[in-house]
Amino acid sequence: MNVSMIINGEAVSREVEARTLLVHFIREDLDLTGTKIGCDTSQCGACTIHVNGKVAKACTLLAAQADGADITTIEGLAENGEHHPMQTAFWENHGLQCGYCTPGMIMASAAFVRDNPGASEGDIRHYLEGNICRCTGYHNIVKAVKEVADAAAGGAG
Predict the structure, then answer these.
(1) Which portions of the chain are predicted below pLDDT 70?
(2) In the prediction, which pLDDT does 35 show?
(3) How many of the other CB atoms lie within 10 Å of CB of 11?
(4) Confidence at residue 99, expressed as pLDDT on a 0 to 100 scale
(5) In this structure, are residues 105 and 134 in contact, taking their beta carbons and an 8 Å threshold?
(6) How far is CA 76 from CA 107, 111, 147, in A?
(7) How far apart are CA 118 and CA 97, in angstroms?
(8) Residue 19 per-residue DSSP state
């Protein structure tokens, strides 16, 4: 079957098998390998992307289900050559260790802060329960997200 969508601002159209997972389409057909495959069961969040502006786990969607969608992956989060504030905050606050979960964490966090400027540390921790990091203690991840949430709210929280 043929699928067409916008990925990171570019129109793409490809022939895929009906059973192709969106995460495999993104990684293998489009060579956008920032979206990771961690568990294939929606538990870890490594494959988190934005579909029509909403957070989605690409391992639980078929490419056919995304036909006509507007998708952003970690590769498309930066604008005009400038990192997204969440990417910068993760870097500056050492919110990563091995980096495997980082794209999914950043994608989930960017959408969360967009919808919840000024979010509390507790709200951030609760929201990120759907994204698993096996290397860090989450402290610096939460610190990075909180920095961006506070800035989005217009000051320190």
Answers:
(1) 155-157
(2) 97
(3) 8
(4) 87
(5) no
(6) 10, 14, 22
(7) 25
(8) T
